[in-house]
């Protein structure tokens, strides 16, 4: 009887430990792989911008195709080899150094609400930084280069489902339409579901090398300050 209780206790302890580990966000690995002994690892991106937000009724940047979008703008002044984007909800106890926190996030940091995340990488037809302004950004032609709904590389959501998102976009120099050339890009953070959603989220945009002159910001106003 005692043995059975002990086994049960071990299973419970181990089970809850697994659960904690499942929620832990690993370093953001790039597509560059390196062999360390018998293991092959994805070399982490060196340049990562993190943003913590709170999705709620009315605080989105835009509603497109019924989805509430939050954007992070990225100015790329030279050809970039690769960009990684990932998003998880809720933020929970995840601690990220130097993350920008929106006011809506700090007010709702303890919220346990979460949602099924969805990300896009978009390129505009703005190729000169002198042409970046609110009006031009609104009327620009935005083309979606890549998107992701669910990634098994991300921590599971509290429901146990792998509904968080991750994408890596590699520049294809041979194809001008697929190359990460000079210009204004944006990352769209949204939800799989259309309509009302609520919850905290962590969004990250990353590059494998520190590209001089790359500026990432939540708003066009902040982006311009960094140019
Ligand atoms: Ca998803």
Brief sketch in words of this structure:
The chain is α+β, with helices and mostly antiparallel strands and about 230 residues long. The chain has one domain (about 1-225): Jelly Rolls, CATH 2.60.120.510.
Protein architecture, described:
Mean pLDDT is 87; it is low at 15-22. A hairpin with a 2-residue loop joins strand 1 and strand 2. The chain has 4 helices and 13 strands. The chain starts with a helix and ends with a helix. It has one domain (2-226): Mitogen Ypm (Jelly Rolls), CATH 2.60.120.510. It has 227 residues and is an alpha+beta fold. Strands 4, 5, 8, 9, 11 and 13 form a 6-stranded antiparallel β-sheet that branches. The protein has helices spanning 2-22, 103-107, 134-139, 220-226; strands at residues 29-36, 39-44, 47-55, 62-64, 67-76, 82-88, 100-101, 117-123, 143-148, 165-170, 183-191, 199-207, 215-217. Calcium ion (CA) binds next to strand 8.
Q: CATH topology, what is it called?
A: Jelly Rolls
Q: For the CA atoms, what is the radius of gyration?
A: 19 Å
In quaternary terms, these chains amount to single chain
What is the averaged pLDDT score?
87
Overall tally of structural domains:
1
CATH superfamily: Mitogen Ypm
- DSSP strand count: 13
Report the top-level CATH class.
Mainly Beta
The share of residues in helices is 10-25%
**Which class do the helix and strand fractions yield?**
alpha+beta
- Strand count, sense and closure of the main sheet? 6 strands, antiparallel
Bound molecules: calcium ion
Our count of helices gives 4
Provide the low-confidence segments as ranges. Answer: 15-22
The CATH architecture can be named as Sandwich
Listing every helix as H and every strand as E from the N terminus to the C terminus, the arrangement reads HEEEEEEEHEHEEEEEH
Give the distance, in angstroms, between the N- and C-terminal Cα atoms: 69 Å
